[in-house]
């Protein structure tokens, strides 16, 4: 039983092909892309929303304590502006990668009659490999062994 669980865990880590390509691709990926993807994924969950609601509620409750002063308002405006500013860049990075991968998949569906297994999960590839795949598709070359 334990060996089946171990095998299943290894298969998830290295990918169904067993060659470790997915794991290697994740290591090659630029640190900012990994960071942006992780933050975008985590910030889209319910707990960050609940944290934001609690922060706003605490800020509102503290209003009478600070006499609804200009400083009290400035703190919330500053914090929300900084968080929004940073999140825009993180989410945009993730959206750019997802968009590029989706476009490549759509291009392949239009150009080919048979599906290409190497494009499954392409959104997990680093940007440099996405560009390489784009050039392959535009040139009509095929370096995959599954096609």
Automatic annotation (TrEMBL):
Residues 123-147 are annotated as: Disordered. It comes from the Bacteria. Pfam families: Iron_permease. The keyword Transmembrane helix applies. Keywords: Membrane, Transmembrane, Transmembrane helix. The chain crosses the membrane at residues 47-66, 72-91. This is Low affinity iron permease family protein. It comes from Bradyrhizobium vignae.
């Amino acid at each position: 039983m334990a060996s089946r669980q171990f095998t299943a865990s290894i298969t998830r880590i290295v990918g169904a092909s067993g060659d470790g390509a997915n794991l290697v691709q994740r290591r090659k990926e630029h640190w900012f892309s990994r960071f942006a993807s992780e933050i975008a994924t985590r910030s889209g969950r319910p707990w960050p929303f609940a944290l934001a609601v609690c922060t706003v509620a605490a800020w509102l409750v503290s209003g009478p304590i600070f006499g609804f002063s200009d400083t009290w308002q400035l703190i919330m405006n500053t914090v929300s502006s900084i968080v929004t500013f940073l999140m825009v860049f993180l989410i945009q990075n993730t959206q750019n990668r997802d968009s590029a991968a989706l476009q490549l998949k759509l291009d392949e569906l239009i150009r080919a009659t048979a599906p290409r297994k190497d494009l499954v999960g392409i959104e997990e590839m680093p940007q440099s490999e996405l560009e390489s795949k784009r050039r392959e598709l535009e040139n009509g070359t095929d370096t995959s062994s599954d096609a």
